[in-house]
Design brief:
The chain is mostly helical. 42% of the residues lie in helices and 8% in strands.
Length: 173
């Protein structure tokens, strides 16, 4: 499924900031390095014409300890700041996606909307662990923020309403 998704997409972003062991057994989740490797093949095989990918890391040079082959691919560092990560990723997209299909707006506005998304996610009474929003609830918040910013209008058409039905959310006081 991942290979199909990557091969059908012209762009992918891979954040390697969670490459640390966790829990009592100190296991590291290796999904992102695996996905990055899957994306590198179509990017390099087409000389970055059919697929473009970017790599982001939490701390400069830490990746050399677990993915040293990235050295020539210029991963960008966000210093564990989610707002910096959003800004870097948006700037990368703006640099590679043709202007005719990229609905560009100032990066500062995108970062502000990310802040709005984060604030709303704290206000939702979620069905996840300890009342945190689930993945689908977080996605609904994202849809709401993007609709309000007029970045996304899929629910305006009948197809979009059935493909992306509104999920009722419960809000904290």
């Amino acid at each position: 499924m991942l290979i199909e998704a990557i091969s059908c997409c012209h762009y992918s972003i891979h954040d390697l900031s969670r490459a640390k062991g966790e829990g009592t057994e100190n296991f590291a989740r290796m999904n992102m390095p695996l996905e990055m490797g899957l994306a590198l093949y179509p990017a390099l095989a087409s000389q970055r014409t059919d697929h473009r990918c970017a790599f982001f890391i939490a701390k400069a040079h830490d990746y050399k300890r677990f993915a040293s082959d990235l050295a020539g691919l210029d991963p960008q560092c966000h210093n564990e700041d989610p707002y910096t990560a959003v800004a870097l990723m948006y700037e990368w997209l703006r640099s590679v996606v043709p202007a005719t299909i990229f609905n560009s707006c100032p990066t500062v506005e995108v970062v502000a909307k990310f802040g709005d998304y984060e604030q709303r996610s704290l206000r939702v009474k979620g069905c996840g662990n300890n009342g945190h929003p689930s993945h689908v609830e977080l996605r609904e918040i994202m849809y709401l923020v993007c609709e309000e910013a007029r970045w996304w209008d899929w629910r305006m058409a009948k197809f979009g309403q059935s493909a992306f039905p509104k999920l009722p959310l419960s809000w904290r006081d």
